[in-house]
Fold this protein.
Amino acid sequence: MKTPEEFLAENGLFGVRDFDRASLLAILLSEMENGLKGAPSSLMMIPTFVGVDGKVPSGAKAAVLDAGGTNFRSGIVTIPPSVEDRKNQPMPGAKSPVDNETFYSVLADEVKRVAPKATAKKIGFCFSYPAEATRDLDAKLVRWTKGIQADGVVGQYVGKELLKRVGGGEIAIVNDTVATLMAAKATEGEKTYSSYIGFILGTGTNCAYVERNIAIEKLSGLDPNGKMIINAESGSFDKAPRSRFDLLMDAKTATPGANPFEKMIAGAYLGPLGLEVLKVAAKEGFFSRGAAERIAGLASLETIDFDNFIAACKKKDRVNPLDEIFANQADAKMARRLGLPVFERAAVLTAVHLAAFVIKTGEGASSAAPVAISVDGSTYYKTRAIPFDETVRRELDDMLVKRRNVHYEITPQVDDAPMVGAGIAAML
Ligand code: GLC
């Protein structure tokens, strides 16, 4: 009988020790270049028009909306960063399809609630979906991700439509990666960074960075400083090697084929991916008969349960289906050995992804002025199966510092970075 590791490798789920990081890094960089040039690429590389170098006025209050994934938040952001008057509700269209009037009325009601408490003229709006950014900081939705069902909104200028329904005003819409980048910039104090990256690893994943190459036609003349923040929409990167399990899982999603990279590392997918690993392994005889039958009958698996199980963490207030399925010690041990590599691979891919963006900034040559990486998202900070942040740093130290003498720093986490960053965009 083969070992679990042989089984995983035969099905294309690589062991992290043998993985060729350098080739993937090179492919990612060339996809970025192509996307910037407008050549065929799986990365959209969307230029955004928020200031890179503006000063944030202290004491200002901005009304902020945050449409992140399945949640829709609103509140008042002040600097130094804090969020008051918060409200959190389900994102319209997350549970069932909505028409445009329903969609915008949920947003408009929140604008009406928070706007009167703000001092900044503009409303800040963190909108975490692929959207073209306009010079006046509006966003034209390209397509929904994260399962949102509000088809009529696709192709619309979301800001313009929203403002129509609240009787005018101004709005600054930013992607969550852009907001997270800006939040770090606004809270850095006396630190000196040569450039900035905003990275999200939560339900979805994506990166924004500061591009300094104004020679590129798409960017030239757009910014007086010659720098622009680019929203890469890197979750749709399609050149990372996918396993049989990735393909099986992808086929069952609402958006087969879309966002393949996101589906390898982000929170919406690690549980479903683990379920495919365990199901195929059961068919190949890695578990007792009882466990094999029970896992075959499990219809879905949430990332939180998969993660808790691998970490052998039992929650009093939550029944974990895997604890019941793998009640026998030998089965549980085998299931953990098969599942752990899903998280290990996610951490290595995360590091390659970040390394590529750090290199793309063209900065970080000195340790006195490293490239700042600002991270937000539950998958990055709350995964228990492996020490995620530590693994990513170890990989980056090797790929960037040791091999290239490029310096980076993962900046201290800013609470509510996407909302804070959207508030800053509104104040600038
Ligand atoms: C998805 C969205 C992207 C967002 C990311 C993280 O990939 O398309 O805009 O930044 O999720 O929330």
Observations:
- The CA atoms of residues 266 and 384 lie 14 Å apart.
- Residues 61-174 form a domain with the Nucleotidyltransferase; domain 5 fold (CATH 3.30.420.40).
- DSSP finds 15 helices and 13 strands in the chain.
- The first helix runs from residue 4 to 10.
